[in-house]
Structures
1.
Amino acid sequence: MTAFNDRPIEEHIAQWRTYVSHRKPLHGSDVEELEGHLRDELRTLAEGGLTADEAFLVAVKRLGNLDALSREFARAHSERLWKQLVMASDAEQPAKPGRTEFLVALILAAAAALAIKVPALFGHPISPNEGPPLFYARNASLFVFPLLAIYFLWKGGSKVINGLWLSLPFVAGAVFANVFPFLKGSDTEKLTALHLPIALWMAVGFAYIRGRWSAESGRMNFVRFSGELAIYYVLIALGGIVVTLFTFMMFGAIDMNPDWFVAGWLIPCGATGAVIIGSWLVEAKQSVIENMAPVLTKLFTPLFTLLLLVFLATMAWTRNPINVKREVLIGFDLLLAVVVGLVLYAASARDPQAPPDAFDGLQLLLVASAFVVDAVALWAIAARISEFGFTPNRVAALGENLILLVNLVWTAWLYARFLRHRSSFAILERWQIAYLPVYSVWAALVVVTFPPIFGYR
Amino acid sequence: MGMGKDLVAASATPLVLAILAEGDNYGYAIIKRVAELSRGHLQWTDGMLYPVLHRLEHQGLVAAKWSASENGRRRRYYRITKDGRAELAAQRQQWQTVDSALRGIWMKVCKA
């Protein structure tokens, strides 16, 4: 029996379904599950001798108050909150009004843009004719991340005293980026420039989730935030390029050279300010980009899988070994980081309750092929080290490869279990989240220990 | 007998896990089983079971699967996982501790 013989009851159920479907925390499958329950109850009540109308009233009443129910569903599925923000009304902190928030973001962005110009007053000029000095590369994150942390602390309504704790990692970062006597053209200096932002991003994460690093949903939200900030940042950067091109074209037309302005002001100030503005955009317009990130993941997972497979096939066919140069090593690390990012992002955008589908199979293929590529790269680095000894670059690349390898192996294992219905997706998600601090800790290790160990080479 | 809200909420996890340890089941039948076990004293608001189940699923303590039911509609069946069994054992120990502590004092209080 799929339907009740009574027409009115079916109508009642249909009405109830439409009504319930309007509750945002309740997804289609939740409504279906509740409807199944309602029907079972109606049948039992009807067998007990109630009329259809009576049975319906009782069954709906027993299901409970819809507001309370929606709230419970929202709590059980905090990942959906990202989309709906239904809890805003009963969260502990009062929501900041949109206008004030924009003003704060704007002031902080201006502060970041000015901060990047301060060193120019103390003998670190940016000249349009040569690349920016490494001083800026080393310290880039220090001009922006503290302000970003302040933005989140303000947004979360944290006390100033908590903020002071958070200033410690930034102070430490500033010390380690600047006290070491790096030699000219030193590799460790470039490594510091690359790794400091990764290490400090965790401090921003702390500010984002207000110090409750143990809260898993908070960490996943920070992952979502990071990914979406990256998307917004690229969009803003594209706009910035257009502005730059027009600046050159227009001032060139009246025989003025805007080099000093573009290189000295527009690019550095724009690049720093855009981080804050991008963050504000992510926070303010969560639902806009929400639909874009999963689409991008879905688009690039097959592409990267294909790329990795073709690369492996080519390498097996031609037997060309990997040429271990610095750029190549960094490139491979980046590639693997992108793969991990794709996995992480797919996880963050996925409904953990949904059963495995073809896309999950593709993800497993991506992870598995990335694992093989990583193993090959690792082997090449190890061979290089045993032949020519340790250099900071090789050790850094080795460490990163190992860290990513561990993650990929375990992710592949969990994915395989999930695909065979042996395990839930939530476990995979939890593994990815639990692994996040490892990246930052390793990056911090590179910044703090590598320069002295390798003699500032 | 009216039960305190907190007590009902606290007992939900061990009850659901224990019922699923008897065998895979779906929401409506779980609620019927709770009523039967408590002789009708533990009355949940029916709908509230589902967020509880979903939360347990999120924690990896139970796994769920849609499959056809005898009436032709899809139904969501829940199954306890290995982690769920471990959690059930842990909960059982905690509840037994509470129970034995209370028993000790009940005897005295009732005799007096």
2.
Amino acid sequence: MGQKELKVAFLLALRSLQRGSRSSVILTVLIVGMCFTNMIFLPSLFNGIGQSITKQVVDYEVGNVLVSPKTGDQYVTDLPATLDLINGMPGVERATPHFSKGATLTYRQRVLGVTVRAISPKDEELVSPLYTKIIAGSYLGQDDTGEVIIGKPVAGDPSIRQEDEFQPSLGGVRVGDSITIDYGNGYVKDYRVKGIYFTGWSQADSAVYVTMTDMALVDPKSADNADDITVKAKPGYSETFIKDELEQYGVSQKVQTTSDLLSKSLGRALQSFEIINMVSLIVSIIITTVVLFIVITIKTINSRRQIGILKAIGVDKAVIMHNYGFQVIILAILGIILGMALTLLLAVYMSVNPIVTPEWSATLYLTPMDLVTNSLILFVAALVAGYVPAYQVSREDIQTAMRA
Amino acid sequence: MIVIEDLRKIYRMGSVEVKALDGITLTIEKGEFLGITGASGSGKTTLLHMLGLLDAPTSGKIVIDGMDIALLNDYERTMFRLYKLGYVFQDYALVPDLTVMENVSIPAMLRKDRAEEQTKRDSLEILQKIGLCDRRDHLPRELSGGQQQRVSIARAMVNKPDILFADEPCANLDSENSRMVLDLFREINEEMHQTIVMVSHEDWHREYFHRIVRLRDGKIVSDGKNGKAGAVNPGSVQIPET
């Protein structure tokens, strides 16, 4: 098969698509485009959900690396020294401690059980974007006492009656209001609401934050202990590198990366996503293959006499086969381009209007590799679908074809 | 030169055997304009298809320019058709999605011994000869039947084949267009010393042929120079013209 034969095959294919049934071409390209979109949409959405959850977990729960008490211990002990050690390591942006206590909030007639999280506000700013999520009032100062920031769902909405609430709240707390926190250890204190925040991560939004300085008054243990320390890595440093480093430098606590933690908690969900993705992929490939097979089969059946004539005037059967092969290649490429355009438009639309639930907000998470891989899979499926009928018809003897 | 020896073609329809060609022996000289005539079902088209390598005989031998075509494999037969033979079909058989120029160029484009420029030059030259150069960018559906058949002839002639086969090329044309096509064949035959084998059942076409072979029931019943048909093939039966 030389260059001349390929050139003639391409010319025949191009002219057939240009001057043949336009509606058939448009319909086929649309179907391939839709199949491509279907192939890539669901996995990208699931990836988006996974990415969203991972980001929220990193931002508000565990950072890049979580240092937690070793087995048998209740707290990370010797806190100041441990923090100094971690913060001094290369690749560590900042480490920040957390100390949580269960408590009961009281505001007017409303009583609500919540988790009070103590943070070191300055350090927290370098690890978590919480300080950027303040929707009213302001963020905590480093040594604030008697002040608290609370999540929007905890603050509540005064226009919603208590019995209509989706989630129990304090019924409309505003910045400057006073709430009472009962820590359960006999320590009860009135706090001024300094700010109200909303992160979109329900566990963070259902909590209230105070400073470590304040918590030391509630529970003196927090001065030297923490429930955990979250560590933010500097750009370019991997979580594993930080973990290995912490272990090598003698941090005696339990050290886990985000991946370690997520593989346990999200492992099953991700497995389910994988299965659904695979089903979606297979269905799309089958639809594309069948559609292109039918289109090319119909084309070849309708052109049998013409194929016989071409063979009669000296056109080799390989040229005829590649003619239909090129038609499929062109249809598949146009379909894939259309599918990519649709997918990218959806991605742009969803980045502006993400799917929001109380647990996560998802956009389409697309990588160039996803686009390339799915394009190649669809392309190969299209080639098979086109070349099988083309090969069959090109082998037909001239007399049979011409009598068709 | 084409040499045909005891050519037979038998079609089997269930348990019934139909002898489409029954022992044809014939020699066609280079430069001859040969007419094959006969009633419907006499084997004209079958013989043309055998000579044109479009079908294989049940038995017998065809030698074209010294080449026994039974010895050729599928690809070699295709190349033989491309380089040595030209075809004109009853229904023009042009590719509807290609322009006149593209239809004519296709066989030339496939030749390995022709550069792109020469292909273009040859195509334009033959289109000029048939008088359709100004319609080279038109699609077949934009042409009349006569014009389409002339394009079909141009396509058959673009490679300057040794032999041109035409299967009732005027069957779908009116008298005027038929004469135009036949005049073109005569011109090609005379100017280019082109061997032409043409199937026809129109009596008035006889004036164009150098020689006429008449078939009946798969056998040659007469073979002779135009106007003096006679039994020249041993074993064939001469039947008076009706």
3.
Amino acid sequence: MSNWIKKFVVALAVGAMTCTLLDSPAMAQEAAPVAAEAAVAAEAPAGPSAEMFTVNNTWMMVAAALVFFMNLGFACVETGMTRSKNTVNILFKNSLIPCLGILTYAWCGFNLMYPGFDYDAGANGWFGFAGWGITTNAEGITSAYNAGYTYWTDFLFQAMFAATAVTIVSGAVAERIKLSSFMIFAFIYVAFIYPIAGSWKWGNGWLNNLEVPFYDFAGSTLVHSVGGWGALAGALILGPRLGKYVDGKIKPILGHSMPLATIGVFILWLGWFGFNGGSVLSADPGLVSVTLVMTCIAAAAGGVSAALISWIILKKPDLTMALNGILAGLVGITAGADQMTAMESTVIGLVAGALVFSSVLLFDKIKIDDPVGAISVHLVCGIWGTLAVGLIGAKAGIPQLISQFTGVLAYGVFCFVSALVIFLVLKVTMGLRVSAEEEIGGLDIGEHGQEAYPDFSPVSKV
Amino acid sequence: MAVKKIEAVIKPFKLEEVKEALTEIGIEGLTVSEVKGFGRQKGHTEIYRGSEYTVDFLPKVKIEIVVVDTLVEKAIATIVKAAKTGKIGDGKIFILPVEDAIRIRTEEKGEKAV
């Protein structure tokens, strides 16, 4: 009996603590409060009702499903913006990445990302590991674990994010990377690099304990830049696709399905309702709705800005630029989706659209070949969105800007260098790029012995 | 035995009109394929993600019909009339001799087979 009461009191305390924190936007995507903090909050008001907890948890599961759906969005965008002879290869990578991501996240990723850094016990906040595998006790499935979700929901939601980060790399290295080498890179990156980097902020690591904590609401840096740095390293080491530069001139390589690319972007936009909306970490009506509105406004502004700029500068409105612009706005708002007004979100989106347009052109010019614009969308706009939190919105100010810059730099160095080392080791050991012959014939036949469109004519009804 | 093959390369949007006109003069079948190529019309430049490229091969539709000699002149006049816009790129018509023709179902040969 006394044991039951003790549990109840702890549950109330932890619940109350999380609830109080949930009222403040700063709680977003951060680790559940540790027991020591909970004890301090013992006199705080009661935790959520069973109904409220169920509502919170349900929303978090819906959000996890939406983020899961983004994998299809990435698959469509990447397939549409590359040539038909590499379609099977791209779909294969995009199918296996979530598989690898979920398995490794259950195996070690979750516990590397949320090691439960305890600063009182002298944690340095750079690296921690809470053990292999995932398991929980009776409290894990009640609001004692967190007011917003159960342990299992927490795992699922975060596992979907992990897969997303590595999928970003696949677009930038498409049409020329050796499948086996890429899968090994993806495994290492998703199993170790992503969660260790993520623990610095969302795992309550050192970046979360700066004097003015680094802020990244849903992952402009933690997810998108992490993927973007990997994409940059990969594209740099691989070099451009054959035929992209002829006699020093850019020769565009056209994507084979604009309808697929467009479907992909809209799936990603839909998925972002879960990506940002779920990062509130509860079904808090005010926070979730404002986050979704700001997310949509930035996406819309990004699309309009990239479309208009391409129209003015290239004389014709480029669909792929408009699509990249929408994604740029989404990546840009992700770091501060709960900190911005409608006007500020518009500015973030407009700037992101302009940035993505100019960086696609710039990367082409300096011969970093990125078939889908992954580096421009996820890295450039991820950095922009992260810095924007220090420039505009509720948290703006020099100290915040310095913290944001520190975060960008730390993730840049760690992720870029790690990705560079992994790719270089793969290059000298098993080779990173397919043969010129295979590249010309297409990776579908070369790597898989399969064709995406095997019929003689694509309109065949046989 | 006197059959000729008429190959006409035309603007894709003219296909429907040409088919209607040929049906009206009693042509009972034709084969159509989507083709690409260039003639005096040449290609044009397009832009993809900020970089210009030239499209050297323009899409056209190729019609193939095989008719008895007596119908050849009428068929040509019909195609010309239906496919002409007067602008560059209207296409070309080629007439070829045909050695023989066989209808697979009945194994009829020559004029009976077309």
4.
Amino acid sequence: MRDLQAAKKALERAEQSTNEVDRSVWLAKAVDHAISRDAVLVGGAAVNLHTAVYKPTDVDLCAYLDEDDRTELNRLGFKHLQDDHFLYTFRDGEKWPVEFPDSVVDGDVMLVSLDVDEVLTVISTESLVLDRIRQATDGTEVTFNEAVRLCRAVMDTADWALIESKVDEENHRAPLLRLRETYERISARAH
Amino acid sequence: MSYFSGGKLRLLRETKRLSMASVCQMTGVSVSSISNIETGKTDPRMSTVTQLLSCYGASLRDLESTPPAVVRLEELKQRSERAAEDLETFDLGPSNPDERLTRKAMLGLDTSIERDAMASRV
């Protein structure tokens, strides 16, 4: 549900934020208010909510955008770059790209309460772990270490039985991806 | 706030190894409608959803998910600060955005905007 006044307030909260976590979630919330459908925070900014060491390079959101949404985002100061890529420049000069990699989130969501009356929809911890394990199937050290960092950070809070069942399910559907094998290597390192 | 998941509907179709075209033939629901429902572009009518579910041998219960957990941002931040300390002692220090962007560039993706954005942050 579009609420431009609320979007402006959220943007102001992002402007006043002094750390990356606050800035990214309030920027995401501003977008969520500016468009007509719910936006879900995914990607690096979501990882950073759990690890505090990620340093996201952008804010990734899942939502379907129509022309009205793009127009309102532009009016709020989100410069349209190409496709569903935007750039927001803060008053202090910081630039934050905002991208919409998918219209729907691949997995489940959780709700993060930002304030007494502001809630942001974020990809669930378990779906985020799965996403990072999927990325780590590329065999590079960088994606492997990122997945280990997240797994280690959510070791005590994630539902690992659920993650394992999803890994097995997906591994069965796409055995060549070697998801189970990658998961076991990451899990062993994270413990 | 709607938690109807087009993604779950897509997963049910893929699990049955059905293409959108074959579902269209079996149900009469057009390929574009199926695609729009699965990608969240449209909120489907209940009758269309049940028609698709019946084609996948599934029920509305298969689309149900437990209500999403609610976590306070402050709580997440406290946990993540503790996690950051743990990662340090675990020999997994801060993530390096430059390495990530290099990997992305190797996949043929344009990273110039992200690099410019990172440079703008003190």
